[in-house]
Amino acid sequence: LCHHARQPRDLSDASPSSRPKGWRHALGRKPLTQVPTRSTNLNPLRDLSPSVEMTKRMVSVFCTLALFAIAPAHAQTTSLNLENLAPVNQLTYSDKACGPAAILNALKFGSPEHRTAFRQIPGANDENKLHGIIDRYFCRPSVVSPAEKRYSKFGGVKYRALTATMRDIAEEFGLHAPHGREIIRGADQHPMEFVAEVHRSLAYSLRFGQAPIIALSSQIAEFDDETGNWRWKSLVDHYVVVTGVPKELRKSAHGFAFDYIEPNGGRHATGFINAERRQAHAAFTGSSRAGRWLGGNRHLLVTAPESPSLSIADDAPWHSRTLIVLSYMISL
User: Fold this and answer.
1) Which helix (H) or strand (E) holds 323?
2) Phi and psi for 323 in degrees, rounded to 5?
3) Three-state DSSP class for residue 241
4) Exposed, middle or buried by CB within 10 Å (0-12, 13-18, 19+), for 175?
5) Biggest alpha carbon distance in the chain?
6) Is 103 helix (H, G, I), strand (E, B) or coil?
């Protein structure tokens, strides 16, 4: 998958009061240009090589076929207008600042109203703005642990604390307040329905200019010497901002590609979200202090090769494999 330029989208008349209706993209195909026959008077040895004109026509045909092949994927994307802007880089503050950086990126690449709010945040550049919102908003008491601040230089930001901060900023600048939720499939929900539900939530939020913030969590299977059993262990939570998803999914789609902003280094990236029905994995729900693991493949898996912070150390043994899941979402 590659990134592509996207046309600006007018969101001035958008209102989240009604759900957007899906639409299909129709691509008309013109018949290929007929290749002219070659003269029978040509020398047989020379006739083995096509003429210059025929070569041009063949190249034109192949280019046309290539455009037909890639155009639908580009045209059928619900996405934000990126305008070649550089994303906010969390490393200008800390390797734990993915949450604050995600909020700034959601504002910077969102609707015109979100971009206005981004410009109004004090700071001459992205680095100053990142330091500014951490000092202003993330030093407030955490909604998870009121005795603690929302941001910790050791543990970053918890899901609910990041949601509360995003809502505080939305209220201050007159934006629609997003909501946060765990992304865990219902026990009786079909995996394909769950994929479609998550896709609709992302597309709906993008449609109205609110870039969804999602939490990607890496997990690893660990052997417990005390019980003699293998168990799941959480490693890292990481926040990224979704900037594009397909407009529509096939009815039986197992997953979909998505464009996102990787704050670790500040760059645009592409990943894939899918349901896993064969390889067993568990889903962690609740806080780190009072949470529990759920069986039944209740999370959606994520492939994110451009997010190195979710991987284990380079010197880890070959049998250590991380599993990345979509665990939380902040969106409209």
Assistant:
1) strand 322-331
2) -115, 125
3) strand
4) buried
5) 93
6) helix
Nearest Cα neighbor of 306 from 256, 247, 246, 263 is: 263
Minimal CA–CA distance to 264: which of 234, 238, 235? Answer: 238
Q: Please give the Cα distance from 325 to 311 (Å, whole number).
A: 12
CA distance 115 to 111: 6
Nearest CA among 12, 242, 205 for reference residue 116: 12
HSE, side-chain direction, 13 A CA sphere, residue 277: 10
The answer to whether the CB of 131 falls within 8 A of the CB of 93 is yes
């006739």: which residue's tokens?
47
Place of tokens 């599993």: 323
Distance from C-alpha of 304 to C-alpha of 72, rounded to nearest angstrom = 23
**Tokens 């969102």 belong to residue:** 110
Read off the tokens for 160: 């609910």
Which residues, including other chains, have CB under 8 Å from residue 32's CB and lie 6 or more apart? 61, 64
Catalogue the E-assigned strands of 80-202: 151-152, 156-157, 179-182
Instruction: In whole angstroms, give the CA distance from residue 254 to residue 251.
Output: 9
Full pLDDT tens readout for the chain, 332 residues: 444 444 444 444 444 444 444 333 333 334 434 434 434 343 433 444 445 555 445 545 444 443 333 333 334 678 888 888 999 999 999 999 999 999 999 999 999 999 999 999 999 999 999 999 999 999 999 998 899 999 999 989 999 999 999 999 999 999 999 999 999 999 999 999 999 999 999 999 999 999 999 999 998 888 888 888 888 888 899 999 999 999 999 988 999 999 999 999 999 999 999 999 787 788 888 776 667 888 889 999 999 999 988 877 666 777 777 889 999 999 99
- The pair phi, psi for residue 177, each rounded to 5°, is -80, 125
Task: Give 30's Cβ-side CA count (13 Å radius).
Answer: 6
* Spatial CB neighbours of 308, under 8 Å, sequence gap ≥ 6: 264
